[in-house]
Amino acid sequence: MKTVETLNEGLKREYRVTITAKDIDARVDDEVKSIAPTVRMPGFRPGKVPANLIRKMHGAALSADALNKAIEAGVRDLMTSEKLRPALQPAVTLDEGYETGKDAEITVALEVLPVIETPSIDGLKLERLTVPADDAAVMAKIEEFATQMKRFEEAPKTKKAATGDQVIIDFAGSVDGVAFDGGTGEDMAVEIGSGQLIPGFEDQLVGVKVGDDKIVKVTFPADYPVADLKDANAEFAVTVKEVKVPAASKIDDEFAKSLGLESLDKLKEIMKDQVEQELNGLTRTHMKRKLLDQLAASHDFEVPPTMVEAEFGQIWQQLEHEASHEEDVEAAKAELEKDKDEYRSIAVRRVRLGLLLSEIGQAHGVQVSQQEMQRLVSQAAQQYRPEDRQRFLEYVQQDALAAAQLRAPLYEDKVVDFLFEKAEISDREVTREEIEAAIEADDDGGHVHGPGCGHDHDHDAKPAKKAAAKKPAAKKDVVTEDVAAEAPAKKAPAKKAAAPKAEAEEKPAAKKPAAKKAPAKK
């Protein structure tokens, strides 16, 4: 194999690789030997078909397979010999003039990970804000839970339903006078104002009373999971069978017993654990942001543009999705466009922090154990239908990139925990309002969260809130969806070589949305 470097600019690399016809032909011979025992041909005993006949019968397929394997091996050898650490999967292109029996010329283009000096973790100082889970916080949690568990009691038959009341209805839906699947139901309980049903449905139930028949007219949302109903104008013939009003919930031993617990004290004990978990989460979020602030402020290096574009694409997709739910969609999207450069800077910061944490983890031996990885995969498999879970497990086992994407969040958390252990930490007790304000403060002021700006990416996808554009929700505590330095590049067969199975065939089918009765939940 002959290799010539044709591009070396920043983190971009490109190579011209020649794979000899001799090498490809040797691989064809290997393919012939591997399939010979299974080939059947009239006039020959099993396994005794001559190699030249096998070549004649299966030559095109064997040559394509051999070419693919030769290219894959050539790319692997290139990565090893040039000591390349690809940021993402290399792009491999076979020359259009290639003919079977001749040398194969391929172009391998990629971006490499930057060389990062081992980051210093000395001198890290952090303040840990703690909030006690006092009785008031526990009772507030119980009251919140009681509100969610509220009961309804029957109202007089003359009572007109109001927001907050519950109505029991039968319904039959149609589009252009034609009934549709899932559009009918009986004895459905609807709390008016809960947002349980498609927009506009509940509002039209205000004022109904027992025995009323009403035609409810709605438009299905553009993102409704049933394709035929997206943006469809529908009518529902509704019969009101009962109207109920909220019943007062007294928080006492009887309330606890209605939940299957022995006493109110036992309920308080359980809720205290939940409150402590929530408060510990706030403490960790704040401290992690401050940790990443310090790391970002002291490190600045070039990052692979393709990784930045991938991260920016995720940010932008999230923002566009949220803008699509604004009252004035076009105005919201226009505001986003004004901030596009800011969001791209955010993507740069996220990628840089991801690479930095990866480097720290590798330098200090942070690892995700096999048991931890198995637990992650098992948890992820639960999102699929039972019949698809085994296919998902096999997919993760075969695809290093998919495994790395599952592994990355846990790996990052372990690196962060390692850094917490190395940092000098001082404690300060605050109220819940104070720690939430401290976290929220990082989101204010219209600051551009670019490289070295000193703000954690958990909240840096949020330039100043504009009138028309909704502030995006904070992203989960994950610096990057894929720690590329930890995952080998996926195999890259050449474009003109024999096409492997489409990746879509290898991945388990996405979960189908559960069949929903219309009027369906949002």
Could you give a quick summary of the protein structure above?
With 522 residues, this protein is an alpha+beta fold.
Number of strands: 11
Q: Helix fraction?
A: 40-55%
What is the percentage of strand-forming residues? 15-25%
User: Uncertain runs with pLDDT below 50, 5 residues or more?
Assistant: 444-522
Which radius of gyration do the C-alpha atoms yield? 30 Å
What structural class do the secondary elements suggest? alpha+beta
| Terminal Cα span | 58 Å
How many H/I helices? 13
Shape: extended
Q: Describe the biggest sheet?
A: 5 strands, antiparallel
Q: Give the integer mean of the pLDDT values.
A: 81
Q: Output the helix-strand order.
A: EEHHEEEHEEEEEHHHHHHHHEHH
Descriptive report:
It is a single chain. The protein is an alpha+beta fold and 522 residues long. The protein has helices at residues 21-35, 51-81, 135-148, 253-258, 264-297, 305-323, 329-338, 340-363, 370-381, 386-398, 400-422, 432-441, 503-506, and strands spanning 2-9, 12-19, 91-94, 104-111, 125-130, 151-154, 166-175, 178-191, 213-219, 233-247, 424-429. Helix 3 crosses helix 5 (264-297) and helix 8 packs across helix 11. Mean pLDDT is 81; it is low at 444-522.
Features:
522 residues; alpha+beta; 5-stranded antiparallel sheet; 4-stranded antiparallel sheet; 17% strand; extended
